[in-house]
Amino acid sequence: MTDSPQAADYVQAAGYGSAQTPVAITLHATCPESLVAAPPIQTVQPGSARNTASYFATHANASAHYAVDVAEVIQCVPENLQAWHDGDNWQSIGIEICGQASWTREQWLSPDVYPVLERAAALVADIAARRGIPIVHRPDDLRAPGIRTHAEVTALLGLTEGHTDPGQGFPLDVCLALASGDDMPLTDTDVKQIAFAVLNGTPLDGPEGGILASWIKATRKDAGQAKIDAAAARALAEQAAAKASGLTVDQVRQAVADAIAAQVTVTGDLKVVPR
After folding, report:
1. CA dihedral for 45, 65, 102, 163, sign (positive or negative)
2. Which of 119, 152, 180 is where one domain is finished?
3. Which of 180, 199, 221 delimits the end of a domain?
4. Could you give the number of structural domains in the chain?
5. Are 134 and 169 in the same domain?
6. Strand blocks (E) in the chain
7. Both 87 and 206 in a single domain?
8. What totals of helices (H) and strands (E) does the chain contain, helices first?
């Protein structure tokens, strides 16, 4: 029986502790041994959460409450019991996000990996709502209610050789924004820039475009890739802009179309160029 409706299944971990009343969530990154390859994998495969849960089921020295991949969430320890996940384990729920601590922000935000962030964020949102845990980043205090990473717990414990996951490139800001329901806040300028980038297959340079711009930049390796992902990026932009402006998606779509028409020309070979 799972605690969260986000979890598709329960696989009991071999190692767990005494009763707890969770006030915090600790985020991890894990790469199941069966997926380790040379060179290191660059994406998250369906089934990796189950592989992680299977590892916990046969190794009593490590566990987490949940494992998350692009396809599903697996629960491994009841939320009201301690799991062996961060060296402190005090009143916290551990979430193993299938990915690698060595990944860059761009890799985490790439189209193949981004769904695991969305799934993890939905799980964080559910746990926070049920447990009254604030969705705020608290890297400075092990006893403060909120969200932190395994690396931050390691640092607070004063461990010189410890875990660094989910890694410096992990987009915690994106994950917490998604969990808070503040996903992809956009200005009118952002919407215009994003629409132009999607149609033209041109990456946005720098962080000034906001969270979604960073995502687009990460996925736009070339014009061909841009066209493949254009529909998904456009849908995200329209939904975010609608939420920020109070308009409907159809109204946003028309406003973006009008803005594009005022800024660009489509040539005979369907190349979009600035006016």
Report:
1. negative
2. 180
3. 180
4. 2
5. yes
6. 9-10, 16-19, 24-30, 66-68, 73-75, 81-83, 92-98, 146-149, 264-266, 272-274
7. no
8. 9, 10
Pairwise CA distance, residues 55 & 14, whole Å:
9
35 and 166 share one domain? yes
- What is the β-pairing status of strands 146-149 and 66-68? unpaired
* Greatest Cα-to-Cα distance within the chain, rounded to the nearest angstrom: 69
Distance CA 115, CA 127 (A): 18
Q: What is the dihedral of CA 94, 97, 103, 104, to 10 degrees?
A: -80
Give the whole-angstrom CA distance, residue 164 versus residue 144: 20
Residue 186 has pLDDT above 50, yes or no: no
Whether the pLDDT of residue 261 is over 60: the answer is: no
Q: Is the pLDDT of residue 226 over 70?
A: no
Domain span at 64: 9-180
CA distance 96 to 112: 18
Position with higher pLDDT, 271 vs 180? 180
Examine residue 1 and state whether it is found in any structural domain, yes or no. Answer: no
**How confident is the model over 101-118, as pLDDT tens digits?**
989 887 887 778 888 998
pLDDT bracket for residue 18 (50, 70, 90): very high
Residues 82, 154 share a domain: yes
The stretch 129-157 carries a mean pLDDT of 94
Say whether both 195 and 157 belong to one domain: no
Would you call 31 exposed, middle or buried from its count of C-beta atoms within 10 A (0-12, 13-18, 19+)?
buried
Higher pLDDT, 77 or 208: 77
Q: 148 with 170: CB under 8 angstroms?
A: no
Tell me the per-residue pLDDT of 50-73, one tens digit each, with 9 for 90 and over: 999 999 999 999 999 999 999 999
At 162, the pLDDT band (50, 70, 90 cuts) reads: confident
Do 223 and 167 fall into the same domain? no
